[in-house]
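job 3f2a | input accepted
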Amino acid sequence: MESRFYEPEKTAKDVSLHELRDRLAEFAQVRGWEQYHSPRNLLLALVGEVGELSEIFQWKGEVERGLPNWSAAEREHLEEELSDVLLYLVRLADVCGLDLGHAALSKIVKNANKYPVAAFARALP
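job 3f2a | predicted structure (125 res):
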């Protein structure tokens, strides 16, 4: 992959949704893929990737947080499929002209109002 698309020294904390959006737009543009990136096509690709992500968990039963019993190869496969889902979601939002970060924060506020802490608080041990 070209160096301008991948900077291994960066951590996830350093990468914003806007940076992912911009890199994906450039990635598609320089390859002439924009013509194929309609909202419908991107959604169908996203659904396909969600299916691939689902297959990883399909026959595992319940999985512990942190995936303590997973091999390095299984974890890497999960990272790749989660990344595919994220990248298609970011690209879809961009093609639709939406600010995904703003929309997500707005949704968190709406959910906080819909599900107030007082209504769901339970006694802690």
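job 3f2a | The radius of gyration is 18 Å.
job 3f2a | closed
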